[in-house]
Design a protein that fits this description.
Elements: E1 2-6, H1 16-29, E2 35-40, H2 44-47, E3 58-62, H3 67-82, E4 87-90, E5 102-106, H4 110-113, H5 115-118, H6 124-140, E6 143-146, H7 149-159, E7 166-168, E8 195-199, H8 208-217, E9 224-228, H9 235-246, E10 253-257, H10 261-270, E11 273-276, H11 285-292, E12 297-300, H12 305-309, E13 314-316, H13 321-333, H14 335-349, H15 354-366
Parallel strand pairs: 1-2, 1-4, 2-3, 4-5, 5-6, 6-7, 8-9, 8-11, 9-10, 11-12, 12-13
Length: 369
């Protein structure tokens, strides 16, 4: 089978889409009996880690174009026709018009369900482009792949798709997070000792305002909150930053931005807990990464998170600041609880491996290619 994949999304540092694209394509390319054509943007030679994927069954193409729509619907459509593909798969929403059967991964439809959290100055044009292309891709695709059963149900309902048009393939966890850490001094530069950790794109749906309010309510003056992730528009600087100042916790909140995977692994392993009170998730990789590291997880009982975390973490109401603060205190103060969550988390994370995801994805391809 000759499979084309849009690999550009692997360059989006600090996003779940980048982690998904990297993990899936590396696992797929490990199947030497299939051929893969990876499509990049000009400049990806330096900034996209998948460009270094050196396998005999992998061909690389750089495809430019004006904007996301111009590149996808014009340039990429032209190139995929030339490459005589058996399948084209986009790891994130956007599909070209090509002759080969088409698969698109829809991680969620929160751009519609959570539209009010996107409708902010500086974010509206991006929201409109994503919404338009998502609807278009849902009509162009021969099959939609969802990250979870919860996401699949929402995708079918919002985009009016039949059950047979949407398959579920769980993402995997990078093997790095299962490995025993040998980088004991990796976080010394941050002078961190006791801290809660937040990981994810700094966007409204992640409920960072609720997290900061819950942290400020804790009676733990020596404990820090560490926030790791890429800024998404002006939201953090306009809303979360001023809230941190207002609640007088500026000296105890550290915003690190995007960090390398080895540093992130150590941050997970040294944290009291990963706190993930998101309002909506199509999957949620950070809780699984934390669990693979043996770190307790406090997560929202919203979106796909109950499906992913199950009983391996503490699930809270993301709209209840007191509930969130009490869960954070419990996991920090009760060593027995933390140990139980750590053990359950490791077991739960082992169920989500990229090798399994790749095999399931081939089943999807072969069901209609």
């Amino acid at each position: 089978m000759r499979v084309g994949l849009d690999a550009t999304w692997a360059a989006a540092e600090g996003t779940g889409t980048a982690s998904y694209t990297r993990g899936l394509i590396r696992a797929l390319a490990g199947h030497a009996n299939h051929e893969f054509v990876l499509y990049f943007r000009p400049g990806d030679e330096e900034r996209n880690p998948l460009f270094q994927l050196d396998r005999a069954n992998v061909t690389k193409r750089c495809v430019g174009g004006w904007g996301q729509i111009g590149r996808t619907w014009l340039s990429l459509s032209r190139e995929t026709r030339r490459d005589r593909l058996d399948i084209f798969h986009s790891p994130s929403y956007f599909l070209p018009v090509c002759k080969a059967p088409r698969v698109a991964t829809f991680h969620d439809v929160n751009m519609f369900l959570q539209w009010n959290k996107w409708w902010r100055p500086g974010m509206r044009a991006g929201w409109a482009s994503l919404a338009i292309q998502t609807v278009a891709a849902s009509r162009l695709a021969n099959r939609i792949v969802a990250d979870s059963h919860h996401a699949a149900t929402q995708i079918r309902r919002v985009l009016h798709l039949r059950d047979s048009e949407v398959d579920v393939v769980y993402p995997g966890v990078n093997d790095l997070y299962f490995e025993e850490s040998r980088d004991a001094t990796a976080v010394d530069r941050y002078a961190l000792h006791e801290y809660f950790l937040s990981v994810g794109v700094l966007s409204p749906q992640k409920n960072l305002e609720g997290l900061v309010r819950a942290f400020a309510a804790l009676d733990r003056p020596k404990t820090h909150l560490v926030i790791v992730g890429r800024r998404d528009g002006p939201y953090f600087d306009q809303t979360v930053g001023p809230l941190i100042d207002e609640l007088h916790v500026t000296s105890r909140v550290r915003v690190l931005g995007v960090v390398p995977d080895l540093i992130l692994r150590r941050l997970y392993r040294s944290a009291l807990a990963l706190v993930f009170p998101s309002f909506a998730e199509g999957f949620g990789l950070p809780p699984l990464e934390a669990m693979a590291c043996g770190t307790p997880v406090v997560a929202a009982c919203a979106g796909s998170l109950p499906e992913v975390v199950a009983d391996a973490g503490l699930l809270i109401d993301p709209n209840d600041i007191r509930d969130l603060a009490e869960a954070m205190s419990a996991v920090a103060d009760d060593k027995s609880l933390a140990g139980t969550l750590s053990e359950r988390g490791r077991m739960r994370a082992r169920l989500f491996r990229w090798s399994t995801s790749a095999r399931r994805m081939f089943d999807v391809y072969e069901s209609f290619a």
